[in-house]
Amino acid sequence: MIIRDGTTTRVAAIPEFVDADCGYLAEPEDAAGLAAAIEDMYHNPERFMALSQAAAARIRRQSSGDIIIATELELITGSSSFSEKDKVS
Q1: DSSP 8-state assignment for residue 17
Q2: What is the pLDDT of residue 3?
Q3: Distance between CA 73 and CA 79 in Å, rounded?
Q4: Is residue 2 part of a domain?
Q5: Total domain count, the chain
Q6: Which residues contact 51 (CB under 8 A, 6 or more apart)?
Q7: In this structure, is residue 1 part of a structural domain?
Q8: Closest by alpha carbon to 25, among 62, 59, 53, 51?
Q9: pTM score > 0.85 for this model?
Q10: In the chain, how many H helices and how many E strands?
Q11: Cβ(10)–Cβ(25) under 8 Å?
């Protein structure tokens, strides 16, 4: 998932990858909310950069190959191959 502008809607699994720390989430069908978020980022490039960096870090933390493989193996085998501290909440 690439978040180019840090703005999306709160539908399906998107909130699992985007929250207020790394982007703007508008309610489904909220065109005005999306427009306001885009306008805010346009007028606040520092906030845009901070959200972009936080989004990149979150995706790496949640979706790294090591995490995905370990999680899938845990689902298949029913046992954990990494400690609780390594899991993303």
Answers
A1: T
A2: 42
A3: 8
A4: no
A5: 1
A6: 6, 21, 22, 23, 24, 41
A7: no
A8: 51
A9: no
A10: 3, 2
A11: yes
Question: Could you tell me if 5 and 20 are in contact, meaning their C-beta atoms sit under 8 angstroms apart?
Answer: no
Is residue 25 in some structural domain? yes
DSSP 88: -
- Rounded Cα–Cα distance for residues 2 and 12 (Å): 16
From the number of C-beta atoms within 10 Å of its C-beta (0-12, 13-18, 19+), residue 33 rates as: middle
Q: Residue 77: which domain range?
A: 7-86
CA 45 to chain CA centroid, nearest Å: 19
Q: What is the mean pLDDT of each run of 10 residues along the chain (89 residues)?
A: 56 74 84 88 90 87 82 82 53
For residue 34 the two structure tokens come to 């999306």
Give the tokens for residue 31: 């065109």
Return d(Cα 14, Cα 76) in angstroms, integer.
Answer: 25
Report the distance separating Cα 84 and Cα 50, nearest Å.
Answer: 28
Cα–Cα dist 42/44, whole Å: 6
